[in-house]
């Protein structure tokens, strides 16, 4: 996905962008509303991440202007203000969703997916690999013409593996990305999801290998 | 003891006006009584004096001594005025010529008494008290001048009757004046205080957020108060704005770096080589999450306390509110493959209150349910209305209460015995209970059959 992040804190913008790039997203950064307008007129975006306090104005004004001009790129507001009233405020102004800083990237992604799903998908999101197609928005896996529903953790696991086929991911790496930091789970919990995903991928020509003592790898037969 | 100045202005005004009216009434009573009494005495003295003069005029001196021919008109004048008894005495030195010998002459003459003006005094006589008119005349008898004393006395029951009649009238007039003044003073107090009441009403009718200055028309005497009030409102507004700006700024300055820390920690975690580094980074992320959550709930709690004080009473339809809430929590639930089942939102369920607070309470319940749910379970969100109350039920298949009492869990910063590793601040259920109480509703937390927790949030129907 291609994000436009409007955030004036250089540090935060840089680390969020870096973090999102790790998941394979493209991120453009704008430090002010003026820069944001420039970016928007130059390139299409799937989603805008908008901070509310910006050097050249309030993010809410930007939100209102976008919606009034019928530019409907989904906007997720990320802000340091966490009061209940602020949440209601920005949703009323036309934001698609709302995240308080600091945010969980898994949650950010889940919210992006939910927003895009509600909007009926933004750009081409279907991925193809060794005999199956996969749409992360609808959580649908199509193997030999047969549609198979993926649960959220299966979907995210497949997304992770699919981002780098043939690369070996350790159990720990997968755990960190699949489970929230708030829950403490043993690394072996990942085995359940690997087993399920293997079952869903059956007959597709793709397989998940166990690399004993190291981790897992997605490869085409 | 009531502090000075705590007595109602109206009571004070009425009391002071009443005291004034009472004073005036008493003064009026005393004046009328004194003036009327004096007048009555003067009149009676005049008649008494005239009778004395008439007797004195009848004194004749001759060779056989002093004689007097009592004029009957004198006594009939006295008798016509009242039913009082009359005594008289005509004496030369101590020898009584005619009349009552025991009617005593004054011990000393004031000297002012001339041949035609009698002297008056009050003296006891027999078993009563009498008013006496006394005068002396010099008569030539047996060739020598002889001083004759004429005394006429009258009992004063007639005067007492007149005085009491006058006193009754005076008391009646005094009471009448007092009653009239009392009624007027109550009316006056009311009309003087009306602008104050109107002003108070205009100020107290305002909504909790209304910090405009007061421009209610008020009399000149109230202008300083209104000015002071407006000054105060302006200062309050400025202080609130400063606080709000400060909180926003503080939140921004704390949360933005926290977000940076979290993002960097996640990036580092992605690249972590050792288990040790991984554990450390996970701990960092958890700490960041915990502080952020605590900050949010403290802010939410402050909002709840502030808004509960002056609760907005607007119609709220719970059905769309729950739909919106479910939609907003769904992505978080999805991360754990927790399914949100929403039921009962097909028809409107209307309550009265502050939509913002209700949403905050329900969000806390729903967040809790999702947070404590194991993966791939279901959280159900039910809306129902029965027996005058709307009921929102949030049920999960989490770890339940394991014996913790609801009263303990809703205490500030209290958390269940079994929360273990789940991040939380312990303010969530406090918020829920406070919102329910502020709306006249209640909140129940029960162990669910088959495991899990069932939270029920009741609000009176509109």
Describe this protein with a few key phrases.
heterodimer; A: 221 residues; alpha/beta; Rossmann fold; Arc Repressor Mutant, subunit A; 5-stranded parallel beta sheet; 4-stranded antiparallel beta sheet; 8 helices; 26% strand; elongated; B: 462 residues; alpha+beta; Heat Shock Protein 90; 5-stranded antiparallel beta sheet; 5-stranded mixed beta sheet; 9 helices
Indicate the proportion of strand residues of chain B.
15-25%
Unreliable segments of 5+ consecutive residues of chain B: none
Oligomerization status of the protein chains? heterodimer
Strand line-up across the major sheet of chain B: 4-3-7-6-5
Within CATH, the superfamily of the largest domain in chain A carries the name: Response regulator
Determine the structural class of chain A based on helices, strands and strand pairing: alpha/beta
Which two chains have the most extensive interface, and how many residues on each? A-B, 42 and 51 residues
Uncertain spans of chain A: none
Mean pLDDT of chain B: 84
Mean pLDDT of chain A, as a whole number? 87
Shape of chain A: elongated
Beta-strand portion of chain A reads 25-35%
SSE topology string of chain A: EHEHEEEHEHEHEEEEHEHHEE
- Output the strand order for the largest sheet of chain A: 2-1-3-6-7
What is the first-to-last residue Cα distance of chain B?
Answer: 44 Å
Task: Kindly identify the CATH topology of the largest domain in chain A.
Answer: Rossmann fold
Report the CATH architecture of the largest domain in chain A.
3-Layer(aba) Sandwich
Over the alpha carbons, how many angstroms does the gyration radius of chain B reach?
Answer: 51 Å
Give a description of the structure.
The complex is a heterodimer of chains A (221) and B (462). By secondary structure, chain A is α/β, with parallel strands linked by helices. Chain A folds into two domains: 2-118, 3-Layer(aba) Sandwich (Rossmann fold), CATH 3.40.50.2300; 127-220, Winged helix-like DNA-binding domain superfamily/Winged helix DNA-binding domain (Arc Repressor Mutant, subunit A, Orthogonal Bundle). Chain A has helices at 10-22, 33-42, 59-68, 84-92, 105-118, 152-163, 171-178, 190-201, and strands spanning 2-6, 26-30, 47-50, 53-54, 57-58, 75-79, 97-100, 127-129, 132-135, 140-143, 146-149, 168-170, 206-211, 215-220. A five-stranded parallel β-sheet of chain A has the order 2-1-3-6-7, sandwiched between helices. With 462 residues, chain B is of the alpha+beta class. Among the domains of chain B are: 10-164; 311-460, Histidine kinase-like ATPase, C-terminal domain (Heat Shock Protein 90). Helix content of chain B is 52%, strand content 21%. In chain B, strands 4-3-7-6-5 form a five-stranded antiparallel β-sheet, covered by helices on one side. In chain B, strands 9-11-12-14-13 form a five-stranded mixed β-sheet, covered by helices on one side. Chain B has a two-stranded antiparallel sheet with strand order 1-2. In chain B, a hairpin with a 2-residue loop joins β11 and β12 (389-395). In chain B, α1 packs antiparallel against α2 (72-81) and α1 packs antiparallel against α3. The model of chain B has no long low-confidence stretch (mean pLDDT 84). The chains are: A alpha/beta (221), B alpha+beta (462). At the A-B interface, α1, α4, β7, α5 and α7 of A face α4, α5, α6 and α7 of B.
């Amino acid at each position: 996905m291609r994000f436009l992040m409007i955030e004036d804190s250089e540090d935060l913008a840089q680390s969020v962008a870096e973090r999102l790039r790790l998941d394979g997203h493209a991120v453009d950064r704008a430090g002010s509303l003026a820069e944001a307008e420039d970016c928007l007129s130059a390139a299409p975006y799937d989603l805008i991440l908008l901070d509310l306090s910006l050097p050249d104005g309030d993010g809410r004004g930007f939100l209102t202007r976008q919606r009034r001009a019928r530019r409907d790129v989904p906007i997720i507001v990320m802000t340091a203000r966490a009061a209940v009233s602020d949440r209601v405020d920005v949703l009323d102004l036309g934001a698609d969703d709302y995240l308080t800083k600091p945010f969980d990237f898994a949650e950010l992604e889940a919210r992006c997916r939910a927003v895009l799903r509600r909007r009926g998908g933004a750009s081409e999101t279907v991925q193809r690999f060794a005999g199956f197609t996969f749409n992360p928005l609808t959580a649908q896996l199509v193997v030999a013409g047969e549609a198979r529903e993926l649960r959220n953790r299966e979907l995210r696991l497949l997304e992770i593996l699919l981002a780098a086929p043939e690369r070996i991911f350790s159990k720990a790496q997968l755990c960190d990305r699949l489970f929230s930091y708030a829950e403490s789970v043993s690394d072996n919990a990942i085995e359940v999801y690997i087993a399920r995903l293997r079952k869903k991928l059956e007959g597709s020509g793709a397989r998940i290998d166990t690399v004993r003592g190291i981790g897992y790898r997605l490869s085409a037969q | 003891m009531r502090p000075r100045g705590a007595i109602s202005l109206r009571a004070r005004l009425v009391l002071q006006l009443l005291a004034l009216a009472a004073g005036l009434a008493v003064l009026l009573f005393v004046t009328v009584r004194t003036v009327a009494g004096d007048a009555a005495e003067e009149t009676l003295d005049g008649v008494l004096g005239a009778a004395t003069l008439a007797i004195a005029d009848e004194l004749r001196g001759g060779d056989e001594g002093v004689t007097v021919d009592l004029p009957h008109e004198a006594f009939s004048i006295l008798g016509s005025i009242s039913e009082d008894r009359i005594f008289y005495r005509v004496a030369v030195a101590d020898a009584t010529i005619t009349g009552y010998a025991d009617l005593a002459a004054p011990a000393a003459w004031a000297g002012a008494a001339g041949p035609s003006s009698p002297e008056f005094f009050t003296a006891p006589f027999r078993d009563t008290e009498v008013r006496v008119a006394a005068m002396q005349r010099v008569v030539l008898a047996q060739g020598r001048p002889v001083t004759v004393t004429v005394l006429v006395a009258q009992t004063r029951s007639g005067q007492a009757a007149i005085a009491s009649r006058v006193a009754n009238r005076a008391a009646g007039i005094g009471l009448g004046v007092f009653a009239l003044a009392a009624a007027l003073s109550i009316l006056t107090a009311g009309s003087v205080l009306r602008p104050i009441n109107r002003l108070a009403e205009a100020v107290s009718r305002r909504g909790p957020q209304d910090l405009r200055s007061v421009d209610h028309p008020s009399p000149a005497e109230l202008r300083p108060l209104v000015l002071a009030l407006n000054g105060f409102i302006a200062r309050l507004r400025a202080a609130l704005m400063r606080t709000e700006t400060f909180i926003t700024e503080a939140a921004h300055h704390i949360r933005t770096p926290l977000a940076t820390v979290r993002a960097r920690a996640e990036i580092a975690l992605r690249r972590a080589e050792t288990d040790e580094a991984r554990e450390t980074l996970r701990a960092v992320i958890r700490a960041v999450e915990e502080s952020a959550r605590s900050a949010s709930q403290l802010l939410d709690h402050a909002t709840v306390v502030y808004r509960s004080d002056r609760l907005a009473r607007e119609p709220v339809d719970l059905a769309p509110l729950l739909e919106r809430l479910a939609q907003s929590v769904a992505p978080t639930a999805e991360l754990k493959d927790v399914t949100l089942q929403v039921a009962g939102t097909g028809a409107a369920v209307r309550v009265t209150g502050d939509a913002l607070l209700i949403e905050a309470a329900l969000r806390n319940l729903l967040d809790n349910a999702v947070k404590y749910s194991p993966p791939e379970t279901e959280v159900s969100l039910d809306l129902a209305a029965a027996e005058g109350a709307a009921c929102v039920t949030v049920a999960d298949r989490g770890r339940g209460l394991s014996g913790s009492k609801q009263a303990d869990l809703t205490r500030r910063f209290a958390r269940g015995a079994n929360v273990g590793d789940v991040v939380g601040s312990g303010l969530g259920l406090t918020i829920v209970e406070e919102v329910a109480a502020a709306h006249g509703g209640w909140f129940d937390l029960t162990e669910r059959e088959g495991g899990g927790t069932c939270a029920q949030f009741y609000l009176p129907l509109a």
